[in-house]
Design a protein that fits this description.
2 strands, 2 domains, flat, about 60% helix, mainly alpha, single chain
Length: about 120
């Protein structure tokens, strides 16, 4: 602790921030949460057809990277998938047993997690 004159601790006072409108605060928070960068930047100053293509690539990313996907990349993805499955299958069966459920409930949870991904 820093001491100044008469052996009193130094206290740094911070002023209150200006009060904002509640709607403006919510809008700012949502924008920072979901749109941290400008997601529409690639669309600016593009012809209508290019905007359509970019929109489809945004909704379906495979249209963008699918052309460069190769058998070598598939082998790597397959190895990663098997590795993750070898970790998660026993873990989910164990969690089901901890909850006094049958093991298939843990595997159902694994399926739902994979599908949502």
């Amino acid at each position: 602790m820093i001491m100044y004159g008469d052996n009193l601790p130094y206290v740094h006072k911070v002023g209150k921030p200006p009060k904002q409108d509640l709607l403006k605060e919510i809008k700012t928070a949502l924008k920072e949460t979901f749109l941290s960068d400008d997601p529409l930047k690639p669309f600016k100053d593009q012809p209508r057809k290019r905007k359509l293509v970019l929109g489809f690539q945004t909704l379906f990313p495979i249209l963008e990277w699918g052309r460069d996907y190769s058998l070598t990349k598939f082998k790597g993805d397959l190895i990663v998938g098997c590795t993750i499955a070898s970790l998660y299958i026993p873990q989910d069966i164990g969690y089901a047993k901890l909850a006094n459920l049958d093991p298939q409930y843990g595997l159902c949870k694994l399926y739902l997690v994979i599908e949502s991904y």
